[in-house]
Amino acid sequence: MTTSLGEAAAGPTAGAPPREAFWNLPNTVTLLRGLAVPALLALPLAPGPTGSRVVAWVFILAATTDVVDGWLARWGEQVTRVGKLLDPLVDKLLVASSLIVLIAVGRIPQWCVPLVVVIIGRELAVTGLRGLASIDGYVIPARRSGKLKTLVQNVAIGALLFPAGTLGVPNHEVGLTLLAVATVLTLWSGWRLFEAFFREGGGGVGPARTAPGPGPNAPGGTA
Question: I need a surface site. Which of 15, 131, 137, 209 has the fewest CB within 10 A?
Answer without folding.
Answer: 15
